[in-house]
Amino acid sequence: MSETDLSILNEIYDVILERKNKPVESSYVCSLLSHRKGIDKILEKVGEESIETILAAKGDRREEIIYESSDLLFHLLVMFAAKGITLEEIAEELKKRRE
User: Fold this and answer.
1) Which of 86, 96, 81 lies closest to 39 in space, CA to CA?
2) pLDDT tens digits for range 1-49
3) Check: CATH 3.30.390.30 for 7-98?
4) How far is it, in rounded angstroms, from Cα 40 to Cα 96?
């Protein structure tokens, strides 16, 4: 997989940051970030998507694994944005683990 293929993660993360800084009323991301429960709502979605990903993998359903993993990655990106964590910080941590 090339770096270009992964650029979609940066693109989505940038949109999430844009929604965080310039809220749009009809945006799902904005609804998560501004939910009255705050980070708890985002973490609830991360947990829900984690379970759905596990169940898809356990059921060995490739397309469902891809679909649910995409949902999980999206909600992780929202959590990172909410907590002020950059993708560069995540990448750096992963690089440290390769050493």
Assistant:
1) 81
2) 565 677 999 999 999 999 999 999 899 999 999 877 889 999 999 999 9
3) no
4) 29
